[in-house]
Amino acid sequence: GAIDQHYTITGAAYGSTTYSVEVYNANDCMVRTSYSLVVQKQPVAEIFGNLNICLGESTTLSAPDADSWLWSTGATTKTITVSPTADTDYTLTIKSGDCTATITETVVVIALPVPTLTSSANANTVCVGNSTVLTAGIGYKYYKWSTGQEGTNMRSISVSPTAKTTYTVEVTEASGCKGVNQITIDVTQIA
Fold first, then answer.
1. How far is residue 81's CA from residue 60's CA, in Å, rounded to a whole number?
2. How far is residue 181's CA from residue 103's CA, in Å, rounded to a whole number?
3. Cα angle value 83/151/164 (rounded, 5°)
4. Which residues contact 105 (CB under 8 A, 6 or more apart)?
5. If 72 and its partner were Cys, which of 82, 91, 122, 166 is the partner (CB 3.0–4.6 Å)?
6. Is 124 within 8 Å of 183 (Cβ atoms)?
7. What is the pTM of this model?
8. What's CA 38's distance to the chain center, in Å?
9. Where is 185: in which H helix or E strand?
10. Strands (E), 28-124
């Protein structure tokens, strides 16, 4: 009867290798056959790009070189541009030859800061010729005022409006995300 023999090849080098098999029957007759084994390198899936973005921004995600790409968005290109409004997982499957690899990364969406903004003036009202100090929330990396004043230590500014004026401050967090708030100062004329 037939004898079923198996042989396992381990540690084969990348590329194509031919293996020969010789089989002898009970009458000492030999049959030889050859098999070609192609070993392909397993691709490594990676997602490159900014994985932390501010709300309202977009980011471009890219993949390594491969024969084909499939993103969880349905795109089949090497790069995609996404604009999520909340933390979102993106899965990439790449194919090189007959081998595939898959990876999932999360794009984290950082909410925009809303700085507090206060005035030292009672009821946000000053008399003509007087000043008030405007103060933005603490803990931001950078402050930029509509008056043109800006800097890392520019949390508070003094203003002396001659008419009702709205002041705006833009703050920048350590993450790079920016937020805006404004305050209106009324001016009382002296009779």
1. 4
2. 40
3. 90
4. 47, 51, 61, 89, 90, 92
5. 91
6. yes
7. 0.73
8. 37
9. strand 178-188
10. 30-39, 52-54, 59-62, 68-71, 79-82, 88-96, 99-110, 117-119
Which residue, 126, 130, 102, is CA-closest to 45? 102
Q: Among 14-28, 60-74, 91-105, name the one with the lowest average pLDDT.
A: 14-28
Distance CA 90, CA 104 (A): 6
Candidate from 9-13, 83-87, 88-92, 143-147 with smallest mean pLDDT: 9-13
Residue type, 98: D
State which amino acid sits at residue 120.
S
Q: How far apart are the first and last CA of the chain?
A: 121
Q: What is the pLDDT of residue 4?
A: 58
Strand-strand pairing, 88-96 and 150-151 = unpaired
Closest CA relative to residue 182, chosen from 130, 131, 115: 115
